[in-house]
Amino acid sequence: MPRTLTLRAGTAGIASFSLFALAACGGGDEEASAWILTGGGWPAIEEDLERFNEDREAEIDVEALENDAYKQQIRTAVGSGDAPTMIMSWTGGALLEYVEQDRIIPLDGNTGELDDRVYESVWQNGVVDDSVYAVPLNDVQPVVMYYNQEVLDEHDLSLPETWSDVEDIIDALGDVEDVDAFSLAGGSVWPAFMWLAYLTDRHGGEEVFQAVVEGEEGAWDHESIIWALETMQDLGDAGFIRDYNAVDAGQNEDAQLLADGRAAFLLQGSWVYATINQDFPEFADSGNFGFTEFPVLEEGAGDPSNIVGNPANFWSVSADATEQEQEVAFDYISEHLYNDQAVDEMLEAGSLPPLNDIGDRIEGSEAEEFLSFADELVGSANHFQLSWDQAISPSEEQAFGDNVAAILQGNMTPQEFVDSMNSQ
């Protein structure tokens, strides 16, 4: 199957980089290096890199940084030519900038069997101008629709397959006290990004947001984005949980609303499956906790198999690293990445590697039902859209978050939103 042209260099806005150098970076050092994040599944990634060092008698020096600190320091390091040998990114606008600045190198011919093992919908996120510049390194996290079956049964509702079904559910629950259609942590803002991404994609297809990522002039001012913003404000009036702007995802309040039966559905990332099992075990074990895919928009131009979320974090290789350092990175990527032990550990933790050859290994795992569902979702997807806040140019991130918050609060019209974003 030919690779899909996902990104094009030369069109996204270039952010300026500070030129002060950071210590312990890859360029010019004798040993290869990699920066990773703290928390979550990252300690397992660090352990895997250490196993590689022991097995290959190689040396990849690993440094773990907190998420926000990493985002600031990696841009400075890449821009000044002092990046670690292996550069982690979320792809999207940041990856385009690295390619445009010639700060990373193509990986074609140095990825081993990964191009055959990784699902196409995930792989294409690391492709620029038909060349591979980044490969996934950890688990895949699609956004899915969770539901409370007890609420559906109580109100004689079925799972929505189309957007008309969604509207019927909203109407059916409109006069029900203390139960709403959708839980949304509007106070945290970022959960609303998922709604905006899915609605835009279902209405206009992946090309709409791709134009934004590639920096095309006026790309935000598209009918599908405006329709999605209008629909979100309509949901705020009738479909989202009451007082949704007071709900905090950081405290898992949106998941609790679903577990408590105060909402029928919750659109959230795959990581919420583990959250509900850990924090609300009674609901998780009740037989009422379920999950499904985002509904189809009738007459929408988007492929209904398309999904959004976090395809994975990705490794790229610095153009400023020495040839010896680059060879160490190639060896890790082509021979060690997603090795059997690493895959088993991911599955045991309830995480899903984006690989097409692990179906048998999912069977029997503690989260088999959910992992099989997510695996099929990713494997069937025509396109996997990276979360918008990660995919856009870093220079747009603050304005994007502020403007989505204004949309949720009713302080900005959809047209004002797109005008603001086009001016960034």
From TrEMBL:
Keywords per UniProt: Signal
SUPFAM superfamilies in the cross-refs: Periplasmic binding protein-like II
One Pfam family named in its UniProt record: SBP_bac_8
Claim: Signal is one of the keywords in the record: yes
InterPro entries attached to this UniProt entry: Bact_solute-bd_prot1, SBP
Signal sequence annotation: 1-23
Name of the protein: Extracellular solute-binding protein
